[in-house]
Amino acid sequence: MNTTILKAAAGTVLGLAAVAANAANVLVVLSDESQLALRDQRSFSTGFYANELMQPVKKLLDAGHTLTFATPLGKAPTLDRSSLDKMYFGNDEASMRQHVELLDKLQLTSAEHSPVVSLARVEQNGYGHYDAVYIPGGHAPMQDLLHSAPLGRLLRDFHASAKPTALVCHGPIALLSALEQPARYTATLEQGAHAAKAPAWIYAGYKMTVFSNAEEDASKGMLNGGAMKFWPQDALQKAGGSFSSAASWQTWVVADRELITGQNPASASAVADQLLARLKR
């Protein structure tokens, strides 16, 4: 099995270490994409947010859990360089450096050495090998994860088994992949047409959160004059999700059954705490 499983104790990457009896195997799913298609043929350079990935990753590794990293196609994911800002790490420069150093040790973004595997390989290994899944944000999940058929199969399996499923910021848009025809659903949103509730969504009625419309409106200037095809809050609500949020940029985490969602970058650490609590049960 050509899968790299990484483990750390006290923040040190050990790689292929023996799994402790009480350790869980957490699947971390990221996007393959580095560009988000906007309206009017524009695009926006993006990727994953550093803190949204690395704060939970460090907490999981420090707790002794093993991590498997995957993207739909098995490509090395892209770091959104705009997320390399200490404000996302509690304005703590040292904390940001520590998390970025761990990212460098993991080599996730290295085209030659990344341990990332494809979701097809994850499926071949068997979903039973994994105890939980975590999906960070950045805008990239809105380009591919929301329509990923293999991710949809994984989420439906985790839902049926009530395995912890944690997502943050724009990451919860990936839940739409569990629809039977997610691309058809999002096409209605892109066209600005009235979208009825999507049929047979496994998360219909679930309490959840995602980067809010208010936050999207406040941060739309970062798109350099472009506009997103639709906002994730609208997409999840119209699909049947029961949305709630805190004030913009404040920590907000919603847990409902197996699902744990965080509103924004400030919520990543709290999402990790909720996931760690679930893994202790």
UniProtKB/TrEMBL annotation:
| Gene Ontology molecular-function annotations | glyoxalase III activity; transferase activity
Q: Which GO terms describe its cellular component?
A: cytoplasm
Keywords per UniProt: Glutamine amidotransferase, Signal, Transferase
Q: Where does the chain cross the membrane?
A: none
Q: Where is the signal peptide?
A: 1-23
Write out the GO biological process terms. Answer: methylglyoxal catabolic process to D-lactate via S-lactoyl-glutathione
InterPro entries given in the database record? Class_I_gatase-like, Prot/Nucl_acid_deglycase, ThiJ-like
KW S-adenosyl-L-methionine (keyword) present:
no
Entry-linked PANTHER family: DJ-1_PFPI DOMAIN-CONTAINING PROTEIN (PTHR48094:SF22), PROTEIN/NUCLEIC ACID DEGLYCASE DJ-1-RELATED (PTHR48094)
Give the protein's recorded name.
Type 1 glutamine amidotransferase domain-containing protein
